Amino acid sequence: MLSPFKSMGKIIIYLFALIGFVLVAGFFLVKFGITNTEGVVDEQQENFIEKSTWNEGEEWETLKEAIIKDEVAIKQAAKNAGVPARLIAAQLVVEQLRLYHSDRELFKTIFAPLKILGNQSQFSWGVMGIKQETAIEIESDLKDASSPFYPGKSYENLLDFKTKDHDTERFKRIVKEDDRYYSYLYASLYIKEILAQWKKAGFPIADRPEIISTLYNIGFEHSIPKVNPQSGGAEINIGNTYYSFGSLAKDFYESNELLENFPK
């Protein structure tokens, strides 16, 4: 008969083996795009949801309080990247509403009582849902003047690393709980780079929050400048009303919600 200590030791070994399997599996799921969700395309850019439900209920009240706590960090990151802070807040709103409504148990037990944002650390990172490969490309495009996403020399050093272990440092600064500046900065620079690409191609989209947000959701590889881009992205269910990522971000951006904190 095994002693309690030996039994406990076996349980711990099995637990760590299971955790290792999940982490490795997660890596390959992300690497090969298996975790990518099929999105939707809005048929008409003016055909957005007429009756908003996203800003009703406990979820929105919780999210407003949580976002206001990070107002300084959001504004600082947006300022350093040269993009509107309200545009960054729009991406945050969609990412968090999607999380709040998709994991009801976690919302009820953690997010709502503490009035906090959901900080992801597996397939996507931080409160802004930045994927590892996206973060790496953001860093690369800051330094590569030949890249169509290159935003300009004044932005080149905004993501410089302080250590030689870039992978660890990147992860830690994006998922950091007590200071989310880098999470917002990566998101801000992603948008800055997308705007640079489209402007250089002759199709500026600085006044199209729904297109910017769609591109934020679907990634660099799908950012193809053209005359009549359509909004869309991941489908998000809020109170049995379905939105695309782009339409929901635009809905917030053009609303009066958090307007004193993040003016248009």
Describe what this molecule looks like in 3D.
- The chain is mainly alpha-helical.
- It has two domains: 1-35; 41-253, no CATH class.
- It has ten helices and five strands.
- It has helices at 4-31, 58-69, 71-81, 85-102, 104-114, 132-143, 166-175, 181-200, 209-218, 245-253; strands at 39-41, 120-121, 125-126, 232-238, 241-244.
- The strands form two sheets. The protein has a three-stranded antiparallel sheet. A two-stranded antiparallel sheet has the order 2-3.
- Strand 4 and strand 5 (241-244) form a beta hairpin.
- Helix 2 (58-69) crosses helix 4 (85-102), helix 2 packs across helix 5 (104-114) and helix 6 crosses helix 8 (181-200).
- The longest helix is centred in the N-terminal third of the chain and has 28 residues, at 4-31.
- The model is unreliable at 14-37 and 44-50 (pLDDT under 50).
Trace the largest sheet across and list its strands: 1-4-5
Class inferred from helices and paired strands: mainly alpha
Radius of gyration: 20 Å
Can you count the beta strands? 5
Overall mean pLDDT stands at: 87
Low-pLDDT ranges: 14-37, 44-50
Please tally the helical runs, counting DSSP H or I stretches of 4 or more residues: 10
State the end-to-end distance.
Answer: 70 Å
Largest sheet: 3 strands, antiparallel
Percent strand equals: 5-15%
Percent range for helical residues? 40-55%
Provide the number of structural domains: 2
